[in-house]
């Protein structure tokens, strides 16, 4: 029996049974000196375009290093993994350039041991005995407006109609409508209301903005009156 195992005790041991036949049994012992140390170079609140590095390292003793499995949102992480593993220490990092679709992502690293493939019938190993998971805090990504659009987007409108401007942004975007002919701001909301004084051909620009940037979209259209005046106007009913 081996008790009081220390890091320097890792290795291959032979147990001999001395009877009529000499029988050898081998035990392979590996040791983890501590749980994985996992760090991130930023807080969990980041801005589009930031580079986030997540690193995990673990010291071990024995012939087989632990296996590190990187995940995102519970699934396998597909991307470049920086491997800086050296003898008795496994160290891996991943780096991502943050995009809006990373908002809400949870990255994690699972450490476990696979059963060594070179264990023979008369040998044993404690390799399957350990699994550890380290989730990083959920990413909160801030980004400037993008995918700005108008609704409804038509070639003509009548007084009383409204055009709404919207964009993807975090935090939510603020909006202004600008008359491109006069450069005047005609609305400080996401909605432009068509009025009688706009009759004729018009060009407007909607700008969506927050503290991280802005995006714009322009629209050209005609405004027609709701009423067609004809004078004199006679109706003859048979």
From TrEMBL:
UniProt-recorded name of the protein: Ig-like domain-containing protein
Domain Ig-like: residue ranges: 144-218
Extent of the signal sequence: none
Superkingdom of the source species: Eukaryota
Organism: Paralvinella palmiformis
Gene3D superfamilies: Immunoglobulins (2.60.40.10)
Lineage start: Eukaryota, Metazoa, Spiralia, Lophotrochozoa, Annelida
């Amino acid at each position: 029996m081996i008790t009081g195992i220390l890091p320097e005790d890792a290795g291959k041991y032979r147990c001999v049974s001395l009877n009529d036949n000499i029988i050898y049994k081998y035990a392979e012992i590996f040791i983890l000196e501590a749980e994985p140390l996992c760090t991130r170079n930023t807080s969990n609140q980041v801005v589009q375009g930031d580079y986030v590095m997540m690193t995990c390292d673990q010291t071990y003793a024995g012939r087989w290093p632990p296996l590190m499995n990187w995940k995102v949102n519970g699934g396998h992480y597909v991307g470049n993994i920086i491997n800086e593993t050296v003898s008795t220490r496994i160290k891996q990092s991943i780096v991502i350039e943050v995009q809006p679709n990373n908002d809400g992502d949870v990255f994690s690293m699972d450490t476990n041991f696979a059963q060594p493939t070179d264990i023979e019938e008369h040998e044993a190993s404690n390799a399957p005995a350990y699994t550890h998971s380290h989730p990083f805090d959920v990413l909160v990504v801030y980004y400037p407006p993008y995918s700005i659009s108008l609704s409804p987007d038509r070639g003509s409108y009548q007084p009383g109609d409204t055009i709404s401007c919207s964009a993807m942004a975090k935090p939510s975007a603020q909006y202004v409508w600008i008359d491109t002919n006069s450069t005047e701001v005609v609305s400080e909301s996401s909605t432009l209301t068509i009025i009688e004084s706009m009759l004729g051909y018009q060009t407007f620009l909607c700008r969506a903005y927050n503290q991280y940037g802005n995006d714009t979209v322009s629209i050209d259209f005609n405004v027609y009156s709701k009423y067609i005046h004809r004078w004199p106007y006679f109706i003859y009913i048979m």
